[in-house]
């Protein structure tokens, strides 16, 4: 019912004001200079527009849901690829570390062998020079004793041999 004309039914639609109204409002009231249309026609047109809008929203929502589903699958793929890449990198580094550890072990063994060979060589030289030093020291001692020999004949008998030594 019309708010201004309580006994009148709303039966037309004011196109300019975009409001439903009664025939008395069109003839005598606020809408006398406005263009109007039959209420059922406007009702059907707006209902059709709203229905089309709902259909567009539903279709849009379906597309958005499909995109969300696709993006969720992309996220799962990214996570799986990341997990595989991390695992691959871990395995490669473990392999490289193993190779490096083996190489380190070989190099340390090589250095140890070389060190031992050089130490043995130097110790051999130490023994050789030690033996030479001992012999030389005995020779010096013997020569000093010979120098103290008071008899010339005895000295001369031993001095030639000492000089050779």
From TrEMBL:
<keyword id="KW-0808">Transferase</keyword>
<dbReference type="Pfam" id="PF00643">
    <property type="entry name" value="zf-B_box"/>
</dbReference>
<dbReference type="GO" id="GO:0016740">
    <property type="term" value="F:transferase activity"/>
</dbReference>
<protein>
    <recommendedName>
        <fullName>B box-type domain-containing protein</fullName>
    </recommendedName>
</protein>
<keyword id="KW-0863">Zinc-finger</keyword>
<dbReference type="InterPro" id="IPR000315">
    <property type="entry name" value="Znf_B-box"/>
</dbReference>
<dbReference type="InterPro" id="IPR033492">
    <property type="entry name" value="Trim54_Bbox2_Zfn"/>
</dbReference>
<keyword id="KW-0539">Nucleus</keyword>
<dbReference type="GO" id="GO:0005737">
    <property type="term" value="C:cytoplasm"/>
</dbReference>
<dbReference type="GO" id="GO:0008270">
    <property type="term" value="F:zinc ion binding"/>
</dbReference>
<feature type="domain" description="B box-type">
    <location>
        <begin position="1"/>
        <end position="39"/>
    </location>
</feature>
<keyword id="KW-0862">Zinc</keyword>
<dbReference type="InterPro" id="IPR050617">
    <property type="entry name" value="E3_ligase_FN3/SPRY"/>
</dbReference>
<dbReference type="GO" id="GO:0070507">
    <property type="term" value="P:regulation of microtubule cytoskeleton organization"/>
</dbReference>
<keyword id="KW-0479">Metal-binding</keyword>
<dbReference type="GO" id="GO:0005634">
    <property type="term" value="C:nucleus"/>
</dbReference>
């Amino acid at each position: 019912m019309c708010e201004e004309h309580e006994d009148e039914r709303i039966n037309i639609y004011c196109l300019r004001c975009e409001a439903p109204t009664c025939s008395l409002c069109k003839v005598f009231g606020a809408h006398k200079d406005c263009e109007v249309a039959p209420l059922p026609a406007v009702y059907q047109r707006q209902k059709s527009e709203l229905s089309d809008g709902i259909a567009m929203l539903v279709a849009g929502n379906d597309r958005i849901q499909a995109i969300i589903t696709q993006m969720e699958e992309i996220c799962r793929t990214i996570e799986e690829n990341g997990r595989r890449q991390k695992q691959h990198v871990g395995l490669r580094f473990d392999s490289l570390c193993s190779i490096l550890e083996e190489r380190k072990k070989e190099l340390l063994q090589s250095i140890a062998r070389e060190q031992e060979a050089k130490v043995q060589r130097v110790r051999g030289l130490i023994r050789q020079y030690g033996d030479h030093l001992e012999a030389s020291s005995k020779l010096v001692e013997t020569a000093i004793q010979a120098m103290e020999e008071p008899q010339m004949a005895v000295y001369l008998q031993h001095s030639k041999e000492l000089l050779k030594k």
